[in-house]
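hey so i finaly got around to running the thing on HD domain-containing protein from Candidatus Curtissbacteria bacterium RIFCSPLOWO2_02_41_11. pasting the sequence first so u can double check i didnt mess up the copy paste, my clipboard has been acting weird all day
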Amino acid sequence: MTKEEALKTLEDLKNSPNMVKHALACGFVMRTLCHHLSSQSSDLPSEALAKEESFDLDDWEIVGLLHDADYELTNKSLDLHTEETTKKLKETGADQTIIDAIRGHCDKAPRETQMAKAIYACDELTGLIVACALVQPDKKLKSVTVESVLKKFKDKSFARGASRDQIKTCETELNIPLEEFTSITLKAMQEKAGELGL
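ok and heres what it spat out for the 3d tokens, dont ask me to read them lol
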């Protein structure tokens, strides 16, 4: 599957402009995380790479783009979420690791690959970062700092829907400290701020 096909899938599944922006943000971040983790993979304990690992930048970006592709279509039903996307991906012959990573971000498949663990952690963090941008006077990502995100992270009443526990799996599942993970995610989003409209 190509990025163009993934974007067409988002269109076919009738995603709103905001959901497309979330998909793009996660796609950009996943691409960056793939690069980061692949360069670190030789340092990972063997059990962390027990499943055959793919560090294909395009595959990681596609997981970011499509992880929530049917969220609105299924009326945000967690029971139905990812089912339509899975169907579409199977029709296109997408790699099973992509399907498993997408299903894993809502606990419908075990998160066995770095790809699956990365989308699980960054999904919620991108939302928190967007919320941090929207409270800036200019509503721009360039005004957001790692420190401001971490401060809002501690404020449980801010962006309540962004699961802090899920974000913190960057430490337990990916072995990346929260501050570093936030820095990687924020930088990836800031570099593509124009495409995100932020």
